[in-house]
Specification:
alpha/beta; five-stranded parallel sheet; 14 strands; 3 domains; about 475 residues; Rossmann fold
Length: about 475
């Protein structure tokens, strides 16, 4: 069933085909035959026109005749390899041009077909190429969704504070350095830890989270290092600890400030020796684990008060990341709110227009003591309760709704966001605005800008020229 569903999903993804042939009737016949199997076809009636189309548009498959005027099929193939590296090129040759077909294959053609064309053979070749392209797209989409959830894109924020943190994450993720993430509850510490793991060489190995504060002291050592049968009362069998479970991957210790001093000693030794000993055993086991820890406590003060080992603190904080509270990230509020609307719309299958001006302004006025977690819960509540497609004051949590009732029209007008200022603008102005803002965010880096906007680099390049950015 799963394979059949995947096949149906793949066939729903459209395939764009460019047919290049200076014989107009033949080109039209090829296009008509491919349209019947669901392809979107464009015709170019010369090699020159084909190259022009390749330079300006994206295609999944190029079907080109080999023998044309001044610009032949080999030139079209070479241009496609340069401009559309993921596209498949099918070369059509005459019976007496087998040598040119071999040359085309050597230059990266997907396959070649002989004239007169057999329509069944043509469709079979195109469907095979399309199947490969759809699988590549599907894998890329799954990867994008994973990155969107746990990659740097998931660490949402345009504010200078968050951009500095993302820069640090990009530098530290590929290494094995231990990381200490500090910040108040709800600031997204586990999300940052997952982003570090997902963008590291260990991404295909386990990410194992453990909340220290949620465990009784009596079982914490067993949870970390495991135990043998009979190691203590109730230990009826062998247990694999989190370090062993995370072997090769990343162990995330949340609320590490709650760890008892005697366990701190053992953790320090594991970090230094990369070996663990299960409770009830004398045998050391080597482990290869990257440790990321998090806390909402003032660890430096705990060190001063002798409640946290100084040597462990320095061992954990090779790289230290401090996440700011949401009240200090006002510039990220709009981005986070829209991010949660998009995420939750997909989850609940509901479409909303967005926030009303009064509701949006009230959300901006609130100080969010619970940080990002509280904001997300508030947006989720609004999505669940909404009945008219507009997230308005009647959908707000009580503590935020009180602020909305106190706002004057003048206060709301003075707090109009950049998004609201675009209301009434034409689509070109809106597109230009968002592309320019994305370019500012990435310091003009086109690859990153295209990724943020969800478009291809070549499309972005054309937009930059079009809007003179």
């Amino acid at each position: 069933m799963a394979d059949q569903q995947d096949a149906r999903e793949l066939k729903e993804i459209p395939i764009d085909v460019l047919v290049v042939d200076d014989d107009e009737a033949h080109a039209q016949a090829v296009a008509d035959s491919l349209k019947k199997i669901g392809c979107d076809c464009t015709i170019a009636n010369s090699g020159e026109r084909g190259i022009s189309q390749i330079e300006s548009e994206n295609y999944d498959i190029v079907v080109t005749d080999m023998v044309m005027g001044e610009v032949d099929g080999l030139a079209v193939l070479q241009k496609a390899r340069e401009e559309l590296p993921e596209a498949s090129v099918i070369v059509v040759t005459g019976h007496g041009s087998i040598s040119s077909a071999v040359t085309a294959m050597q230059h990266g053609a997907f396959t070649y077909l002989s004239k007169p064309l057999d329509i069944t053979e043509l469709r079979s070749a195109v469907e095979k190429a399309a199947s490969n392209i759809r699988l590549i797209r599907r894998n890329a989409e799954l990867s994008r969704r994973l990155d969107e959830k746990f990659g740097f894109e998931g660490v949402v924020g345009n504010s200078p504070q968050m951009q500095r943190i993302i820069d640090i994450l990009k530098n530290v993720a590929p290494t094995d350095s231990t990381v200490l993430i500090e910040g108040a509850s709800g600031t997204g510490k586990e999300l940052v830890a997952r982003a570090i793991h997902q963008n590291s060489p260990r991404k295909n190995k386990p990410f194992v989270p453990l909340n220290i504060a949620a465990l009784p002291e009596s079982i914490l050592e067993s949870e970390l290092f495991g135990h043998e049968a009979g190691a203590f009362t109730g230990a009826v069998g062998k247990r694999i600890g989190k370090f062993e479970h995370a072997n090769g991957g990343t162990l995330f210790l949340d609320e590490v400030g709650e760890m008892p001093l005697d366990i701190q000693v053992k953790l320090l030794r594991v970090l230094e020796d990369r070996k663990i000993t299960r409770l009830g055993s004398n045998d050391e086991l080597e482990v290869n684990v990257r440790l990321v820890a998090a806390t909402n406590a003032d660890i430096k003060q705990m060190v001063a008060d002798k409640r946290f080992r100084e040597d462990l603190y320095y061992r954990l904080s090779v790289v230290r990341i401090e996440l700011p509270p949401l009240r200090d990230r006002q510039g990220d509020l709009d981005l986070l709110m829209n991010h949660f609307v998009k995420e939750l719309s997909e989850r609940y299958g509901k479409e909303v227009q967005g926030f009303s001006r009064r509701a949006r302004h009230a959300l901006f006025e609130y100080d969010w003591p619970g940080n990002i977690r509280q904001l997300r819960n508030a947006v989720e509540r609004m999505m669940v309760l909404d009945t008219d497609g507009l997230l308005d004051v009647d959908d707000l949590p009580d503590e935020v709704a009180e602020l909305a009732g106190e706002l004057t029209e003048e206060e709301i007008a003075s707090g109009v966001s950049g998004v609201d200022q675009l209301v009434g603008k034409n689509l070109n102005d809106v597109e230009k605005y968002y592309i320019s803002k994305a370019l500012e965010l990435t310091d003009g880096k086109r690859e990153e800008t295209a990724k943020i906007l969800g478009i291809g680099e070549r499309t972005l390049y054309r937009k930059i020229k079009e809007y003179d950015l």
